[in-house]
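As a warm-up, study this chain.
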Amino acid sequence: MRFDILPDAQALPARVRGQTYTVAAQRGKAERGKKAQSGKAKQSKKIVASNRRARHDYTIEDTLEAGMMLTGTEVKSLRAGRATLTDGYALITDGEVWLHGVHIPEYAQGTWTNHEPRRVRKLLLHRREIDRLARSTAEGGLTLVPLSLYFSDGKAKIELALARGRRSYDKRQELARRDAAREVERALFRRR
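Now compare it with the structure written out below.
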């Protein structure tokens, strides 16, 4: 809708008179203003792979998000939703965090530029985070385990966990506790 073609152009405000002013432009300005007021826009998160086995085999102490250094064909393969985290772990070597054992299959349409599926990948973290992780893994006997691999605002991210390994009897106790809680919920649901 153009306001400069109205028959009574003198009745319009001075900033609109003589300009092409559309409703869509007004809406766009209002939306940009709302985003600026609320800080960041909503972050979209597309999960590519998750490591459900890690939650069974380990007790999760703490989690953090890290970026990954990837090649082009790795990103394309991840966008197709193909990755496996089950054998993955992270090590701190020379003040850098490296991801081992994560399988990202070769890109189907890739040529000679394709990547190695199980290559070692560098993780991107702040120095303070790396130092804290190094202290925790050295002193407490904790391990760095990948929990999930996802895209956040178009960038590949990985959720790492500081985890302590469970023994087999701990796993059985955890399963028994979950079953008992599930039975209690079912009983309460039936009573309603």
